[in-house]
Amino acid sequence: MRRTAGLVLGLFLVATVAGIAPAAAPPAHQYIAPGAVELVPDAGDSGGGRSGRPTTIGGRGEIGTVEFVNRALGYLRGTRSQTFRYPGAPYVKVHVARALLLPGDYLTVADPTGTEVYRYDAGQLASGRWAMSVTGEAAVVTLHPAHADPIGVRGMLSGLGVTIDRVARGYTVAERLERGDLPERSAPRRGKAPPAGHVEESVCRSDDKTDAVCYRESDPVLYRRSKAVARLLINGIELCTGWRFGPDNRMLTNNHCLAESGDAHDTEVWFNYQCAKCGGYAVFRPTKVWARDVLLTDEVLDFTLFTVDDFEAVKKFGYLEAETRRAIAGEKVYIPQHPRGEPGTIATASDADASGNCAVDNPSYTGYDEATDVSYYCDTDGGSSGSPVLARSSNRVIALHHFGGCPNSGVRIDLIQQRIAAGLARQR
To answer: Among residues 344, 335, 334, which one has the least CA distance to residue 272?
Structure first.
């Protein structure tokens, strides 16, 4: 189901239809609302990937860059709105360095159509922060006065206004193609370095990952499980994967992706970021929430348990449960993930396994410590860190993916569960 990214540039239609997010320039994907009809023609399959590979920063995939802009919004007419446009970028994300607003005033960050809008009151911006990313190549930032002030006298006299100092935006298709060799020049891993023989992420032989939506009819259980898996956008340009762990407001990812609440506050969690059609380019518009608090983290077991804001918005995507037993050598497994920050895929087949299926290679593999990991030849890539590894027999999680190297490996979930239970008990 891999498509050649070069074909993307010429085969996108710009559609302005109910439920379809229009694009002024061809991004890697076009976004549609759930249930909408895809209007983008299939580019076909020539065996390549959707796009070039990102590099990794400290074990996290990199998907974009930060531009320094230093733009001001004020209360005078003509200064209350600024548009930040980067043709071909898949998302744009602004950083508010300063926001001094009058009581009742607020700021919005939106796409040009107003389909995706985020509102911020003065208290939310007082200390400076990143706004939620806007899908597409442009973000419109607007200051909304609560009271009529036609010529902006009050704001001008009191020195009020908003300063946007930085903009993070995703790499265009062309930029990602140019950067295709970067995984081999990765920056140092955040936290502990991988043990000898391990690398960040690996495709073992051919890339056998498939769009999650391809299983919607053929294996609906796998498809439903993939809905609980989210893309993490960290600091505006870095990538990992995370997933809902149980029915409560709990999520898991790797410690090398997210280790402190300060990191969490600048991390977006994207649910339902999946292709709408098997082999197609149209993508459901994701539901985005902020990560909130890190509850527990462990460097050796390489996990972080955290919460999200607006939990009610993501409950509908379901959750995953952990196995209580150890993994068994030879048992079939699968990995729902967001490799390279792409829409959700599932690794379930493997041409590196004699059976042709992803399977446990060694249930007592050495990770950061002896016998802490489960190894397998399921394909992964930059940004897959933090993905769940599920047993086909039970559809429960048996490991938390974190290393490549062929075999690739994940931390045993039974060890993680023990550590979480002990750690949370001590916090009570």
So the answer is: 344
